[in-house]
């Protein structure tokens, strides 16, 4: 049950898009992947073909149901999404209150999914420190901090190092890594920031995703960048990051392990 | 055709005013809108098309998973070897009988001494190959004629036939 948290101190850096495309990349490599949304924007589902008008999700009924796996959606295959769903203000506050004060709230709701062998869970969070990020960080195997290749993101690097996201060490297991998003070689500032981050973070920088029109167009078409534009620069970059994530997590596909007994024909 | 009234002049010349020509020049092409799933869903519903509601046509809208999708019978991973192993299923008497019979047959066959390639080694006496080295004498030995497995033909079919006969 590898669990990856995609977070950032800054908004609008492409966390949700990164989460969705990372999920697609890992699923293409053969793993069963669940994309889990903790953001009230409820936008992660759109990357998986869920219609805009569809308000299904787990948050509104998180308190009364003990197993949130019943709210998981899939269009078939080995990729799944657990949408935040449409939640009213009291429902959202109640959810965050439980996340803050009930230590076992997440473990209980996600127990089926967390215990499913081999399922990679990639969780998307709202920007900055949130109750969800703090609660999930205790369970997470890896944190992926997304930053833009600009100075606004760069100026928030000390915040991460000073443990301002969760009030403690971001990840106790495999640690936290960075992804630099929307790097544009044609712009001076973008080049300089990319070079600076590469020098400063070294191995902690898992990859740089180049600025690519096809990412936005894939989002508009509710598809992954791999389906929409397989030969694009962003698809290449994200695939590389997914391979590194799989390497850190020790994900093995096709090693002959069978997690569930195959269905027998009813003879 | 690089004048603003090209189409009109063409119509006059060819006396085809009745025809409604469409202008496919570069400018009008640039004004065309892309077909984006998100924008389509936000457009005021002028024409209600159920097929367009789900976004991309090639993708089916995601549905809730069934209950057993994430249900695991055992929490520990099941190794491949265990899966391949035939489960002791409660089978009827005839199947059990045949199964026992089939299981016992290869054991009896194994008891019969199989022809060893001793003749080959005699005809080509070579020093014994080292441990791990390829045994070229065996690899390039001329194909020996296999003795017909005459002994297996009249193996204990009788008991199986008897058993099948008694099942009636």
Automatic annotation (TrEMBL), chain A:
This chain is encoded by the gene named bcsQ
Q: Which PANTHER family match?
A: COBYRINIC ACID AC-DIAMIDE SYNTHASE, P-LOOP CONTAINING NUCLEOSIDE TRIPHOSPHATE HYDROLASE
Q: Which Gene3D superfamilies match?
A: P-loop containing nucleotide triphosphate hydrolases
What protein name applies here? Cellulose biosynthesis protein BcsQ
Record InterPro entries:
Cellulose_synthase_operon_BcsQ, DNA_Partitioning_ATPase, P-loop_NTPase
């Amino acid at each position: 049950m590898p669990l990856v948290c995609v977070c950032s101190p800054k908004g609008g850096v492409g966390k949700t898009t990164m989460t969705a495309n990372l999920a697609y990349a890992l699923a293409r490599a053969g793993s069963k992947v669940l994309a889990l949304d903790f953001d009230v924007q409820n936008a992660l589902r759109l990357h998986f073909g869920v219609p805009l008008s569809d308000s299904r999700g787990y948050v509104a009924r998180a308190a009364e149901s003990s197993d949130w796996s019943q709210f998981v959606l899939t269009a078939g295959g080995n990729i799944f999404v657990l949408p935040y769903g449409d939640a009213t203000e009291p429902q959202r506050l109640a959810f965050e209150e439980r996340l803050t004060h009930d230590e076992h709230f997440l473990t209980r709701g996600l127990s089926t999914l967390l215990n499913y062998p081999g399922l990679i869970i990639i969780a998307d969070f709202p920007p900055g420190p949130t109750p969800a990020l703090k609660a999930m960080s205790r369970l997470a195997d890896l944190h992926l901090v997304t930053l833009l290749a600009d100075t606004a993101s760069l100026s928030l690097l000390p915040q991460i190092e000073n443990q301002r996201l969760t009030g403690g060490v971001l990840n106790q297991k495999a640690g936290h890594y960075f992804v630099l998003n929307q790097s544009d070689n044609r712009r001076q500032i973008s080049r300089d920031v990319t070079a600076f981050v590469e020098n400063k973070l070294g191995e902690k920088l898992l990859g740089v995703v180049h600025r690519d029109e096809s990412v936005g167009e894939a989002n508009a078409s509710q598809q992954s960048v791999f389906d929409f534009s397989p030969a694009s620069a962003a698809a290449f970059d994200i695939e590389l990051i997914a391979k590194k994530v799989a390497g850190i997590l020790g994900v093995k596909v096709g090693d002959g392990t069978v997690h569930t007994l195959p269905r027998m024909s009813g003879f | 055709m690089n004048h603003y009234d090209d189409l009109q002049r063409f119509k006059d010349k060819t006396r085809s005013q009745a025809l409604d020509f469409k202008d496919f020049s570069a400018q009008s092409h640039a004004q065309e809108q892309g077909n984006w799933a998100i924008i389509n869903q936000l457009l005021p519903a002028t024409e209600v098309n159920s097929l367009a509601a789900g976004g991309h046509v090639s993708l089916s809208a995601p549905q809730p998973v069934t209950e057993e999708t994430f249900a695991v019978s055992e929490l520990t991973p099941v190794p491949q070897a265990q899966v391949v192993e035939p489960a002791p299923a409660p089978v009827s008497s005839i199947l059990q009988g045949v199964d026992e019979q089939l299981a016992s047959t290869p054991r009896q066959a194994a008891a019969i001494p199989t022809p060893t390639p001793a003749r080959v080694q005699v005809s080509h006496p070579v020093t014994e190959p080292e441990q791990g080295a390829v045994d070229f004498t065996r690899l390039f030995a001329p194909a020996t004629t296999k003795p017909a497995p005459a002994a297996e033909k009249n193996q204990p079919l009788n008991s199986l036939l008897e058993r099948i006969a008694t099942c009636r």
